[in-house]
Amino acid sequence: MKVNIIYPKDKWILQKIGEELNKRLDYSVLSDRKSPNINSCDINYYITYNLFEIKSQSIDVGLFTHIEEKSKRLVNNFFNKANKIDFCVTMAKKYENILNTKNILNTKTINMGIDLDLFKPKLILGFVGHSNNKIRKGAELLKKIKKINFVELRATEGALSEEEIPNFYRQLDYVLITSKYEGGPMCVVEGLACGIPIIAPDVGQVPDFDTGIFRYENSNFESLVSLLSTLYQNKTKLREQVEHLSWNFCAEQHDKLFKKLIQNKK
């Protein structure tokens, strides 16, 4: 079996899909959209369907990503090509169902892959102040936190202007306070004003607030790590929905489809 993957070199996701599949399917070849040899392989896989122009002597498969709903011409093009091609792959079940309602039943949804080693959750914690303040700000605690592999710690270190501080907050998951004692600190009210929750011991004005405050025992690293682990688990629960969607899984699904199409043709 030989599969011709016809794709655009667009430095974007479509090129990525073609190249990732080609790495994993030992019977595939890549063809640029400008020079596809559509009768040289058992299957032509068009990424996307827009690259399909005329029916070949082989099995023609198209990736039907989405419908340009605001253009009647493009909507018609979507369905016209789906009717002419041998098999339609969709990225979302929504479009498989839409094709089915038009009596186009030769369809299958295959989720495209992601690099699960690259896309990993992190807790983004922000520290406002100088992180080397050993006496009051909890520098020793901060040093230990930096070594936690699921934490990314960002500190202002006194380098941000008043105008830059709000955007700093808005990029965080939590504002982290490690102080042993405080009058405020101002980052409590500033963080909450930006809609960012606070991780802090009961110092200064922290006890004055309830909503959006996650407390740990003052200066206790184990207490803080326990809290951070719980908060991190909330992120990993989101990841669990897509943990199977590796590029290997994507290639396996395509492999099963291609082999089935060849078998059905015999």
In brief, what are we looking at here?
With 266 residues, the chain is α/β, with parallel strands linked by helices.
Structure report:
The structure is a single chain. The chain is of the alpha/beta class. It is 35% helix and 17% strand. The protein folds into two domains: 3-114 and 244-265, 3-Layer(aba) Sandwich (Rossmann fold); 123-239, Rossmann fold (3-Layer(aba) Sandwich). The chain has helices at 13-24, 72-84, 93-101, 139-145, 165-170, 186-193, 221-239, 247-265; strands spanning 3-7, 28-32, 43-46, 59-64, 87-90, 107-109, 123-127, 151-155, 174-176, 198-200, 213-215. Strand 5 (87-90), helix 3 and strand 6 form a beta-alpha-beta unit. The model has no long low-confidence stretch (mean pLDDT 94).
How many domains make up the coordinates? 2
The strand order across the widest sheet is 2-1-3-4-5-6
Number of β-strand runs: 11
CATH topology of the largest domain: Rossmann fold
Spatial shape: elongated
Taking the sheet with the most strands, its summary is: 6 strands, parallel
The CATH class of the largest domain: Alpha Beta
What value does the average pLDDT take? 94
Order of helices and strands: EHEEEHEHEEHEHEHEEHH
Q: Beta-sheet strand percentage?
A: 15-25%
Number of helices: 8
Give the terminus-to-terminus CA distance: 12 Å
Structural class: alpha/beta
Level of helix content? 25-40%
CATH 2nd-level architecture of the largest domain: 3-Layer(aba) Sandwich
* Rg, Cα atoms, Å: 27 Å
Low-confidence stretches: none
